Amino acid sequence: MTDLDKIRNFSIVAHIDHGKSTLADRLIQETNTVAVRDMKEQLLDSMDIERERGITIKANTVRIDYTADDGQDYVLNLIDTPGHVDFAYEVSRSMRAVEGSLLVVDSTQGVEAQTLANVYHALDADHEIVPVLNKIDLPASDCERVAEQIEDVIGIDASEAIQVSAKTGVGIRETLESIVKHLPAPKGDPDAPLKAMLVDSWYDSYLGVIVLVRVIDGRLKKGERVKFLSNGTVHHVDRIGVFRPAMAEIDSLGPGEIGFLTASIKQVRDTRVGDTITHQKSEVEALPGFKPAQPVVFCGLFPVDAAQFEDMRDSIDKLALNDASFSFEMETSAALGFGFRCGFLGLLHLEVIRDRIEREYDIDLITTAPSVIYDIHMKDGTVEQLHNPADMPDLTLVDHIEEPRIKATILVPDEYLGDVLKLCQDRRGLQLDLTYAGSRAMVVYDLPLNEVVFDFYDRLKSVTKGYASFDYQMIGYREDNLVKMSVLVNDEPVDALSMMVHRERAETRGRAMVEKLKELIPRHMFKIPIQAAIGGKVIARETLSAMRKDVTAKCYGGDATRKKKLLEKQKAGKKKMRQFGKVEIPQQAFINALKMDS
Amino acid sequence: MTQTLGGFGLYLHWPFCQAKCPYCDFNSHVSANIDQARWQAAYLSELDRAAAETKNRVLETVFFGGGTPSLMDPSLVNAIIERIRQNWPMVNDPEISLEANPTSVEAGRFAGYRDAGVNRISMGIQALNDTDLRRLGRMHSVKDARAAFDTARNLFDRVSFDLIYARQNQTLQDWKAELTEALNMAIDHLSLYQLTIEDGTAFGARHAAGGLKGLPDDDTSADMYLLTQEITADAGLGSYEVSNHAREDAQSRHNLIYWRGGDYIGIGPGAHGRLTLNSQKFATETELSPLGWLLNVEKKGSGETLRDAVPSSEQALEYLMMSLRLSEGTDLIRYKNLGGKLAQNAAQDLVQLGLIEIDETRLRATSQGRPVLNGLLRNLIAE
Ligand SMILES: Nc1nc2c(ncn2[C@@H]2O[C@H](COP(=O)(O)OP(=O)(O)OP(=O)(O)O)[C@@H](O)[C@H]2O)c(=O)[nH]1
Ligand SMILES: C[S@@+](CC[C@H](N)C(=O)[O-])C[C@H]1O[C@@H](n2cnc3c(N)ncnc32)[C@H](O)[C@@H]1O
Ligand code: SF4
Ligand SMILES: [Mg+2]
């Protein structure tokens, strides 16, 4: 057990790509936590998807030992957090386990939307914040301007901000010193009954569920029986340890310490993050707990090859074992067959899960239009939750429809402000605030979530050449004039393309959709009408003309083999198409048809 | 004696040209010195190897293709034909064709080819205006072509020529005029190919890089195709295959073997063959590179690099794909005997759309259906 005043617990938070994981690397290296030969870049990003995309998705904890300038030995527990808005939940819950935050700001970029969001989370958690100006090795680095910006925009003292290059290692020692000096030691009573917070849990195929805990009071030892307060279940602790960052077993954890336990738990779902853990016989007051992460974006995922449905069920079950924020239920569609309606924290989360199913389990998927949950207020006073526009109840029974709204914060250099305002306006936004910090504007909008889930972020990046940053939070439901738009291809409705739209935007969306589909559906032997409709009323229409020319000019003895293989390949390619009546629609069309050019 | 459905022919590939045309993806190479005696020995050795397994079958056609076979010494052609006659019994009126480029030098060899036994010439004229000939990278002018054509028709009863249309900046009117001129020249056979941009050619690279502007779009090339069908039919040279036109009885019997799913021996670098041996259909291929083929023949006694049994399902597909190119269409009984199936609903729809015709024994693409033949096939082949 470590003396409380020799412990410092902190999270590393920042806007995406500002260098959190790289800074964690340097802290790990400077303290010799990992042998030189085992060191690699963004060591803590261990999932394939993380390494491939160069981003952190899962928060990671590491315990490091540090001998400070005062000659004392300290134990530091750091938590590296993800920067992307979809995983903001990971950040806020990590913060509950620690007393301070290193706020990393890229000194070539300055304060961005997630910098702000993270500061608010940190203040919520009563954290001490140590600002770190990173990437000072780059010529574009401007510490003075960024420090000023931190004071102006965030309102925290940046005079002692540490200037760091996580790449070259400059300022790392100062960072460690500052952690010891400026961050508070944890509080806790070693003699009180055990009270620990269940911070996170994940599945390991050898050890079962691994539970990350932060001990508040008392001691947790190997071999003890512990109780989870939320459901009263009792488990026998068969292992206790810490991350360095590989798992290292120890005998016990005391107050202020962060580590893991295993207890032969089979499913992540049997553990609830934010739960309170105590000894079987003890009675303690429960910690406030965390609000569970709520999926906000929904879409249908269907196997391209219907025969792979069972494989897909397996893969989804396995992924869900480890990701409690992802929800799913079986769905059947007339056109797409059997599949799953899945809920995600955001679009990146959706992409990550879809990628993993396709790659790790080798299943090609069709993704239907992402949608949000609408509250359908029925005339009889009941409220139905609509996850899938295809399930829209009979309109004569509906009183009104409410949709989820978000508060979006966007930081953007002022030369792009006009484009951003136009984008938000086009997406039915209501401006809440507009302020300036130097040459950057901070815009706050109230926006319907459904206008944002699909391609808002892509559009924002493209209209601002990548210079805008974006963060959002849910603010509740509001009534609006919403209708279901259906799409008919060759006079057959295609469920998977139906969507909820605002009545006033319906024509525009409908026209964009049918035009897109006209490009995406290959020409057939006959002409194909493509229509968007509300109820029985057609609001947009295009006709895809029949194929006129597709013939091989020369085909002699030497060409037979090649042409035959081509035909066979095309026949196999048909599997990537879905048949709607007589029309074949390529799987890519389902998602691409929704991308708006403006 | 084996009788194969679709006939029995021999294809011989000569892989050299004077220059590589920018649109051409055939197995053709430019080489400064070609030792024709060495090639002769190799061809004769391969003819003997082929004869060993097909000895008593009656050969109906021989085709010298390329590359540019009109670069072959007449003596070489003579030796080959002589050996063929020794190795196989031939029908009374065999068709022996040779592809020729219409330059004056080559025209000088025509008489020699006739004396060697060639009785049909297929000439690559390609265009009837000099600007376009240059663009196509051709070594001849329109004047050369006409002269060579006259030489040929004086020597041979059967002379066909090739044109490539749907060229850069060519309008429907331009093509109509050119085709009319061509029909005035033509005797009884014409091959009219729409320009295809092939991967791996100079045109392919330019096209991929955004160059080669002014090619007709799909609608225009469809119109050009339909116009071609009309004009040639009016002139009595209607199409008997997608790109081939002939008077009654003047069709290329050799090429019909391919389209009717017959047997053919493939001799020379990169030549393909289809052979029925002990009731099993085989696909054969030879080494593609000229020198590699030569060395294989010399050192290993065989240029063959592949011999695959073709399962009946693949034969069916191949037969459908090839025979539907012909105006006579597909023999459905033969197709079904190979285990071939048609997607019935799709077939009915295509009949309704006027793109195909089906009766008891035959399936045909209509004149509207032929320009979208690949689409028809994709729809017709059953899972
Ligand atoms: N030049 C320079 N590059 C740096 C520095 N720190 C980080 N980087 C680079 O910045 C990029 C992002 O670094 P990460 O450490 O992955 O950033 P992150 O904040 O953990 O990103 P997320 O986890 O995705 O939010 C990488 O390419 C790093 O190599 C630095 O001090 N100098
Ligand atoms: C095998 S080539 C060789 C004949 C001879 N070497 C010549 O070029 O005249 C046969 C014919 O195919 C046609 N051809 C070759 N490449 C083509 C292409 N890319 N598009 C259309 N027709 C082509 C030409 O008309 C050519 O005459
Ligand atoms: S088109 Fe004929 S001449 Fe030109 S490269 Fe091809 S084979 Fe040779
Ligand atoms: Mg990271």
Automatic annotation (TrEMBL), chain A:
GO biological process terms on file: positive regulation of translation
Binding positions (GTP): 17-22, 134-137
InterPro entries: EF-4, EFG_III/V, EFG_V-like, EFTu-like_2, G_TR_CS, LepA_C_sf, LepA_CTD, LepA_IV
Domain of life: Bacteria
Gene from which this protein is expressed: lepA
GO CC list: plasma membrane
Alphabetical keyword list: Cell membrane, Elongation factor, GTP-binding, Hydrolase, Membrane, Nucleotide-binding, Protein biosynthesis
Annotated function: Required for accurate and efficient protein synthesis under certain stress conditions. May act as a fidelity factor of the translation reaction, by catalyzing a one-codon backward translocation of tRNAs on improperly translocated ribosomes. Back-translocation proceeds from a post-translocation (POST) complex to a pre-translocation (PRE) complex, thus giving elongation factor G a second chance to translocate the tRNAs correctly. Binds to ribosomes in a GTP-dependent manner.
Protein name in UniProt: Elongation factor 4
Topology of the protein relative to the lipid bilayer: Peripheral membrane protein
EC number(s) from the headed UniProt entry: 3.6.5.n1
Enzyme class: hydrolase
Biological classification of the source: Bacteria, Pseudomonadati, Pseudomonadota, Alphaproteobacteria, Rhodobacterales
Protein location: Cell membrane
Catalytic activity as recorded in UniProt: GTP + H2O = GDP + phosphate + H(+)
GO molecular function list: GTP binding; GTPase activity; guanosine tetraphosphate binding; ribosome binding; translation elongation factor activity
Sequence ranges assigned to domain Tr-type G in this UniProt record: 5-187
Similarity-based family: Belongs to the TRAFAC class translation factor GTPase superfamily. Classic translation factor GTPase family. LepA subfamily.
From TrEMBL, chain B:
Main location: cytoplasm
Keywords, in A-Z order: 4Fe-4S, Chaperone, Cytoplasm, Heme, Iron, Iron-sulfur, Metal-binding, Oxidoreductase, S-adenosyl-L-methionine
UniProt subcellular location: Cytoplasm
Any one Gene Ontology molecular-function term assigned to this protein's record: coproporphyrinogen oxidase activity
Segments forming domain Radical SAM core: 2-238
PROSITE patterns per the UniProt record, alphabetical: RADICAL_SAM
Family listed: Belongs to the anaerobic coproporphyrinogen-III oxidase family. HemW subfamily.
Protein name: Heme chaperone HemW
Pfam families in alphabetical order: HemN_C, Radical_SAM
PANTHER family xrefs: COPROPORPHYRINIGEN III OXIDASE (PTHR13932), RADICAL S-ADENOSYL METHIONINE DOMAIN-CONTAINING PROTEIN 1, MITOCHONDRIAL (PTHR13932:SF5)
Essential cofactor(s): [4Fe-4S] cluster
InterPro entries in the cross-refs: Aldolase_TIM (IPR013785), Coproporphyrinogen-III_oxidase (IPR034505), Elp3/MiaA/NifB-like_rSAM (IPR006638), HemN_C (IPR010723), HemW-like (IPR004559), rSAM (IPR007197), rSAM_sf (IPR058240)
One annotated GO biological process: porphyrin-containing compound biosynthetic process
Functional description taken from the UniProt entry: Probably acts as a heme chaperone, transferring heme to an unknown acceptor. Binds one molecule of heme per monomer, possibly covalently. Binds 1 [4Fe-4S] cluster. The cluster is coordinated with 3 cysteines and an exchangeable S-adenosyl-L-methionine.
NCBIfam families, per database record: hemN_rel
Cellular component annotations (GO), alphabetically ordered: cytoplasm
